[in-house]
Design goal:
With 423 residues, the chain is of the alpha+beta class. It contains 13 helices and 22 strands. Strands 10, 11, 14, 15, 16, 17, 18, 21 and 22 form a nine-stranded antiparallel β-sheet that branches. Helix 6 crosses helix 7 and helix 8 runs antiparallel to helix 9. The protein is globular. 47% of the residues are buried. It binds adenosine monophosphate and glycine.
Amino acid sequence: MNVLILGGGGREHTFCWKLAQSPLCKKIYTAPGNAGTEQLSMNLPLDPMDFKAVKQAVLEYQIQMVVVGPEAPLVAGIHDYFKQDEALHEVFIIGPQKEAATLEGSKEFAKKFMQRHNIPTAQYASFTAETVEEGKAFLEKMNSPYVLKADGLAAGKGVLIIESLSQAQSELESMLVNQKFGTASQTVVIEEFLSGIELSAFILTDGNTGIDFPMAKDYKRIGEGDTGLNTGGMGAISPVPFVTPDFENKIKDRIITPTLEGLKKDNIPFQGFIFIGLIKVGEDPYVIEYNVRMGDPETEVVLPRIASDLMELLVATAEQRLTEYNISVDSEVAATVMAVAGGYPEAYEKGNPITGLEPTEGTLLFHAGTQKKGSETVTNGGRVLSITGKGATMKEALQKAYNRLKSTHFKNINYRKDIGFDL
Ligand code: AMP
Ligand code: GLY
């Protein structure tokens, strides 16, 4: 089967690497891909949001499965676009239909879904420009810190956590009235602040049944000790050491099962990955958010731990035969450290040559923002490389990743030295 992977980050390189190992996978294409995916697949220079261009490529290269990496094409309805097209409707799409993608595309939709199905999450209320004064009054009844969330997709920047009431009120006004995040903040969700440690659960579902993939913890802040600006993710660890069997059962019983049941009850079809952002408050799990895709860099630690043929699982997902399958997970710990361009997540340079990309024993090197330029590989994004180490312990896995990083160079390389510090 020929497969097209949409996206061009570390997540997509990891999918490419994993699927290339499957005998079911004939030829892989990645759009737009990066210098890493170019080694394993054919990169196609097209924008995943340009559905017509995706269609053309699918027909031209006889692609039978499309794996959608990022959320934007899913929220924009790429799955439905394929299903409604005479020439494309038999192509397998991994990534949910538009309605289900709204679980990530609208925080309010996700909150209502959780409320309807009794899934534990922070208390909330939502407001629009018409109700901004009620929103300010609502904040007065809440305790600090205040959590304000733009309803729509805002490239990971739409959540504000604010200490002062007056500042929270003025930010609310700026989001709703001045459209601080454009149309994404036409509606704002105000939430109760939950205090605890975060982790993520991943489920592959065909809409009937779900297979639990390994859980992971990511590190979102740029600075050591989880300080500074939010990023797409600076590193990740899997498994998550504080997930005891008892806590895992709570996640399954209170969150994963009701989520899958809720989708069925609401008649919301879903074929793809559900990524549930969780927080452990005391001994109890709460949902922070739903995503409708795999995480990046969580994929870089989750897929390397999977012994099963992923392609087989994806075909079964599309054919709604997942109930026939199990997943086999290797017990080693995987840790990934993201090397980023100096300045990221603010302004940074692109186009700097990268050296030291040769493979080494015990590590995997996934490309994120990289590009081939003649014989050179150069930086092409804020997050540049994700280096995954595997070992019997988290310490060993991290040591391998950090050792590998010592021999990798590009101008102004930056990475967190403390991934896993809190575990
Ligand atoms: P999100 O974009 O929904 O993942 O939110 C970004 C980050 O904000 C999360 O990873 C949490 O660290 C934090 N966050 C979101 N909602 C809450 C909440 N209700 N209480 C505490 N922290 C939150
Ligand atoms: N690492 C977080 C995300 O992929 O959304």
